[in-house]
Design a protein that fits this description.
The chain has a three-stranded antiparallel beta sheet, with no helix packed on it. Helix 2 runs antiparallel to helix 3. The chain contains six helices and three strands. It has one domain. The chain is mainly α. The radius of gyration is 19 Å and the shape is globular.
Length: 196
């Protein structure tokens, strides 16, 4: 919510970036930003162990994860707010589409977790963001942005089944307080919890 609110605030404060002439390109860039920021954010989140204990490092790990998570959602907040507030399409239909999309997204997560692991599902979400960017480049957006959106979408779509097919891909390093190694789970017995 922090990232999406910051994105919405940007749309409000910088209305000139989202004029009728620039709207499609701006939304396409925001969708592409979401697609490009999500995979590195995912990797960083999976590398940072979260400790719910009273220490500066525990607080810093939670703060770091909050900032990292906010970055892709900033871009999605820009895209959604710009479409809802700057587009000349009927607001009732736009808002209905937004609610239907959010509802389908919830079902998508439930069904998706039966088929994929969570990191692969996040990569799929990122690929969908790139496809959305490609869809918004259909109007006045530059051709280079259109090509980049398509390329990123295809690469991310390829990465999803590859990541899901192996335990050596993008996966958490620490699972339920245990350091999860590539060849199995390493015991953390004897390592103080504040280190993890």
């Amino acid at each position: 919510m922090l990232g999406m609110t910051a994105g919405a605030t940007t749309v409000y404060l910088r209305a000139d970036w989202f004029s009728e002439r620039r709207l499609q390109a701006a939304v396409a860039k925001a969708c592409l930003g979401y697609a490009l920021l999500t995979p590195p954010a995912l990797v960083l989140i999976l590398m940072i162990p979260v400790g719910f204990h009273r220490s500066i490092m525990g607080l810093m790990s939670i703060l770091a994860i909050a900032v990292i998570c906010a970055l892709p959602f900033y871009c999605s907040g820009v895209a959604i707010s710009a479409i809802l507030t700057k587009s000349h399409l009927p607001i009732g239909k736009l808002y209905a589409s937004d609610l239907i999309g959010a509802s389908l997204g919830c079902l998508f997560v439930l069904g998706g977790l039966d088929l994929l692991d969570a990191p692969s599902l996040v990569l799929l979400s990122s690929a969908i963001g790139a496809i959305a960017a490609y869809a918004f480049t259909n109007g006045s957006a530059p051709t280079s942005l259109r090509r980049l959106s398509l390329t990123v979408g295809v690469l991310l779509a390829i990465a999803v089944p590859l990541n899901a097919a192996t335990s050596y891909g993008i996966q958490p390093l620490v699972v339920k307080g245990q350091l999860d190694g590539l060849s199995g789970t390493y015991s953390t017995v004897g390592i103080p919890s504040r280190v993890l």
